[in-house]
Fold:
Amino acid sequence: MYESPKCHPRIKDSELSYILQNQETDLSQKRPPTPWREIFSSVPFYAVSFAIFSAFWSGAHFLSVQPIFLGTMLHFTIKENGILTSLPFVFQVVLTSTGSCIAKWLNSNNYVGVDKVRKWFNFLYCLGYSICLLGVIYSGCERMLSTVLSIAAMSFIGLSFNGCMITPVDMSPTFAGTLMGLSNTISSVAAFIFPVIVGIMTNEEQTLEQWNKIFLMCIGLTMSSGIFFCIFGSADVQPWNYSNEETKKRIFELLYNDEDDILRKSTSKRSKTIKSNFDLDLGNDGEEKKSISPYSINLGKGVIMELEKFHGSYYIGLSKSTEGTMEIRFRFNVPLAQLEMLKKGSEAMLAYVKPFFTSETLPSYCIGEK
Structure:
């Protein structure tokens, strides 16, 4: 164990640079207030909560209800019941691990975004679980077929960890703990409601007909949650992830801080020398230095604009560095898909502030006519 990444003797320069550029540098600031109103009025939040509720419902089926079905209807002994109940754990681990690798490959190669990956994996869990459970209904008292389909149904729950279970972290990195706590608290209700419902339905009538009603109820709940999550859910970072005060402060720093500091782009990340090696330099007295495929831009005053790839998606990163160092003071990212909207917003803002400034205040390319 080491105190910080900087102290680790075997960390690579690229790893250290990535950690330092993406971590919070000013820990003295208070955590922004939780946007409760925005969270509880967010449709994606309710969609992911419903999806997680379905996953918890399936988990309760797996842990509490399925052993009862195996013992009472298929007449397995306690020892056989224990073995058959534990087998889905193995397949869940395999499916979860395989799904994670596939999701990372899809995102890293930019085949699909994080949002689609989460929805696809969650729907695949819902579809596989429901189809296998439907097979259990039609298999009736055929012990072998019913058991195999039950194990397969329970195994598909592992794909939910690549789907809805991790989505709250994608929706709001700042308030991920809050979202996970809220959604899991709501969803945990399923863990004690489902066994109670099963007890009520089978207490006086332990028949296949009653169990089939239970399985149909599970199928309806699971498929409806999967469809609802695909339509209304979202794994994109929500607008309320950033507080208004934080946004205002970042804008203020970008506009009114006169420190002419530059974030260098160099292969030797630990060197203290600063090199203005940018693909496009708009802060050097209006002179532009271009090269193939520009991906980092010096806007002057220590403000840097970069094109970066993260989790298979491209973002436009705006950052502010401290004087003489590579420490990032403020940073926020804009999805590449919103670059055109960023351009329109910048043009509209320039048109708005133009009457309030003279040609000495703003650069010539801002004051000049379009």
